[in-house]
Specification:
Number of domains: 3
Helix content: 25-40%
Shape: globular
Number of strands: 31
Strand content: 25-35%
CATH class of the largest domain: Mainly Alpha
CATH topology of the largest domain: Glycosyltransferase
Structural class: alpha+beta
Largest sheet: 10 strands, mixed
Length: 642
Amino acid sequence: MTVFEKSKWIWKASDAIQDEYVNFTVPVAFDGKKTVLRLCADSDFNVLVNGKLVAFGQYQNYEENAYYEEADLTPYLKMGENQVEILVWYIGAHDLLVYSVGKAGLIFELLVDGKVEKVSDETILSAYHPCYKRGYQKLITVQLGYSFYYDAQKEKEPLEYAPSVIVDKPLPRRKRPVSPLNLEAPSVGVLHENKENKKYIFDFGKEIVGFLSFRIKTAEPMLLTFTYSEYLSHGIVNRFVGKRDYSMEYYTKSGENDFYYAFRRLACRYIAVEADQPFEVEQVAILPTNYPLTEKTYLPTDPLRQRIYEICIRTLRLCMHEHYEDCPGREQALYIYDSRNQMLCGYYAFGNYEYAKQNIRLIAESREKAGLFPLTVPGEWFETIPSFALHFFTTVREYLQHTEDIGFVREVYPRLLRVFKTFRAQMDENGLLKDFEVGECWNFYDWQNGIKLIQESTPNLLLNLLYVRALQEMSVISRAIGREDVYYDEAENFKERIRRCFYDETLGLYVLKSEAPLITEYGNYLSILTETCPPEDAEGLITRLLAQKDRVPLTLSMRCFQYDAMLKVDREKYKPVVLADIDARWKQMLDAGSTTCWETEERVIHDLHCLPHECSGYSRCHGWSAIPVYYYHTLLEENEII
């Protein structure tokens, strides 16, 4: 019997709206036999047995390619009658980075000793949850999605159950491919400030990711606003950062309010709770939601490097849930370039090859955007980053290098071929790649002026060098899986065209565009890595680049291209240079009291001291900046490791 053979997708009504919560009730008679609930929901679910949360978290993908979850209910059931409730949150929003829109729905089957005993159909009773404000649609960030409004006074109202309606949706056929998250014991905030019992600020002592939980007493009903942030600015927990609104609202009932919210993960160090009237806080906590990992025993002996390694590992872990995330605070999204850095570090820190494989599969199976990949997976954002698609070839080659999983690489190979087809259509009359038309495409390369947005559809050095690098990676991949290698020769021919167009004889450096002599570290270090700069000239290029005052530097995430280029030229000479540069750049995060790695250097330093309305909202916990993990593992001597 195939999964969900007798089950049907169901919902409360045929006219679902964005941001609504529906509760499904399923009575279960238990006689001691193993009882498993298999389910899939659009968009997310909580499973409760007799009021206790026992499972949560839908593995997100596209509607036509959905995964199902399995929850063993046996340990939570009592002998006799039990009430199983499935609370489903339907997001339904377009243009989010963490969610692909589908029809609202729930499908399930209940298995007892491996046999299907109950299925989702029109007999299952459902009701709108009265406490969650239906259709509220208050955005935290445009990337992340909705916050919530909960009215505890309505907990006394009985749910208005009625038979569900059938929904036409494709059946999920694949089981969640990675482990479910662990819901850990509460991390309780320490009171940082109390203003007349009307505004409390709690400090968790470190960056933390998980579900909001609290116990609060109020003499009478009142509106509480919870605001969370990764840092304090002039003693303030920033609610508004530009158009972002890092808050949620809870309308209390008189007396004890004991609440948790197990849908939206918060990433923060501080939480502020405020109201117009005095109230009493017993506890504000985060229930950490961590992916189960075994950390390799490793630590540099140098105290500074120990601390850097620790914040990098913490960053990697906080940016891992259903898939890798660029940052848990602003987006919680799987980006192609960000995840490349995270996977590479993860191989050394955790050996989590299967987790990396499923991230690669999510990307390879994603819907096409402008002939490439979507900006994030799964997601429905209106644009993509073409340069990130080229980094995916490095991701696949590195996975192959670390696992020798030829069979899986053969699976994703057709998607790589389609990406090359799109880029080849971008060639100009001189055989160079032009930047893509702005609209569906964001011609982004790094967070630096001049290369974070290129609007002219003309050839530039970075895109063409990244294309050469992708050709070189594809050459290695093709030979490894027994496919014809037509990519090596194409890369060699491309390198010659790049030299003719972008090399400035006077400066002895490569310029961003032939008509605009902008010098970028990114482009010049890439020229060394791809051997577009002849190996015998690479040492001199580094010397001239470092002496060039008017150059566009790399940001944290792209520093790997500098480090790799230097190590390629002379490993022994540049190893101490690379390690010293890591020491200096990551030390400033430690000096600022950070427990995780920042997205960028300068902007975050500015934000730590700016007024709330001046803050940029750059992430203080960003997975792509954990790259010291890789360099420590590959550069430090054995006697520096315990």
